[in-house]
Specification:
Layout lengths: L8 H13 L3 H8 L3 H9 L18 H13 L5 H9 L10 H9 L2 E5 L8 H14 L3 H4 L2 E10 L8 E5 L15 E9 L2 E8 L5 H10 L2 H8 L5 E3 L4 H4 L1 H10 L16 H12 L9 H14 L2 H8 L2 H10 L9
Parallel strand pairs: 2-6
Antiparallel strand pairs: 1-3, 2-4, 4-5
GO molecular function: DNA binding
Protein name: Transposable element Tc3 transposase
InterPro entries: RNaseH_sf (IPR036397), Tc1-like_DDE_dom (IPR038717), Tc3_transposase_DNA-bd_dom (IPR025898), Transpos_IS630-like (IPR047655), Transposase_5 (IPR052338)
Length: 337
């Protein structure tokens, strides 16, 4: 049995980090010294009031009300729970309105809100290269501490890229329909390591070899890397065209950067993706949208500042386990994004 009492903010951040890393509930509970049920309750309802488990005697739907919900969901499977509750209560002026808790509880047996799975397509050759990469770097903990992990991400005014969630009946799967984005976006580049946060830089919307190299030079990130890793460091980047261009490779050779040979189609092996995921959850919580690019950029900077070096380090400590999973799964995806 783990400790009792409400979770602290530090514990909540740690649990999110371990979950993003792919740990099982039982492993998270052991690390947090909390019961498995306490961890599960928090992950299921992170904003719920501590200790509140809802009205266990909430009344059941009548047949017509349940039919109404299913019909609404068939027409709009991405409807939020609040909107569904309002629709169920439409025309109930002479009767007591039902609460969101009642709607949620009545739907729980037959429906769940899930996101379509997003995975990189992996050919047999891709999987073999991923296994070879994992085997080459497996258990080299001291070398792992020297790696500077990097990645770019686009942030949209109206929400994160990816597949939106939808209500589906038990046993069914969400449609693979990508949400529409519009209204503008900004691109950022991030670097992290075992020392914590290294850099977050705004980039042009379209990254070319020329502006990529210019960003690395003008920001003097190599100086930051050298100061935090005086014993030496290895630069990690994916295989985007700008990264693999001849001009970029010439820059690395000229400056003496040691660049990791990263396998194609492997964002699931990059811990930076987990940091992006944490930032997106905080930025777009409650389906928040932004009115202007300046507002969006300010929020990105603020959320980045709120992430602690301890959170980043907790993600990096699990990288060896991630490589193990890649080998055990014969190069298949180890995490969805």
């Amino acid at each position: 049995m783990g400790r009792a009492g409400a979770l602290t903010e530090a514990e909540k951040r740690a649990i999110w980090g371990w979950r993003a890393e792919g740990l099982k509930l039982s492993d998270i509970a052991t690390r947090a010294d909390r019961s498995r049920n306490a961890v599960k309750r928090f992950l299921d309802q992170p904003d719920a009031t501590p200790g509140y488990v809802g009205n266990q005697n909430a009344r059941k739907f009548t047949g017509p009300a349940q039919t109404c919900v299913f019909n609404k969901l068939r027409a709009a499977p991405r409807s939020p729970l609040k909107a569904l509750t309002m629709q169920v209560n439409t025309g109930r002026s002479q009767r007591k309105p039902v609460s969101r808790e009642i709607v949620r509880r009545n739907m729980a047996d037959d429906l769940s809100f899930r996101r379509a799975i997003v995975r990189q397509p992996l050919s047999r050759e891709n999987r073999l290269r991923r296994v070879a990469f994992a085997m080459q770097n497996l258990n080299k903990i001291e070398e792992h501490r020297k790696v500077i992990f990097t990645d770019e991400k686009k942030f949209n005014l109206d929400g994160p890229d990816g597949y939106s969630g939808q209500w589906v009946r038990t046993g069914e799967f969400p449609d693979r329909v990508r949400r529409h984005t519009g209204g503008g976006s900004v691109m950022f580049w991030m670097a992290i390591s075992s020392a914590g946060k290294m850099a977050l830089l705004k980039t042009p919307a379209r990254i070319t070899s020329e502006n990529y190299v210019a960003m690395l030079e003008s920001s003097r990130v190599a100086t930051i890397f050298g100061e935090t890793h005086p014993e030496g460091w290895t630069f990690m980047q994916d295989n985007a065209p700008a990264h693999a261009a001849r001009n970029t490779k010439s820059f690395f050779a000229r400056e003496g950067w040691h660049v990791m040979d990263w396998p194609a189609y492997s964002p699931d092996l990059n811990p930076v993706e987990n940091v992006w995921s944490i930032m997106s959850r905080r930025m777009y919580a409650g389906n928040r949208q932004y009115e202007s690019l300046s507002e969006l950029e300010a929020e990105i900077i603020e959320v980045w500042a709120s992430i602690t070096n301890a959170e980043v380090r907790s993600l990096l400590t699990g990288w060896n386990a991630r490589l193990h999973r890649c080998v055990n799964k014969e190069g298949a995806n180890v995490q969805n994004f």
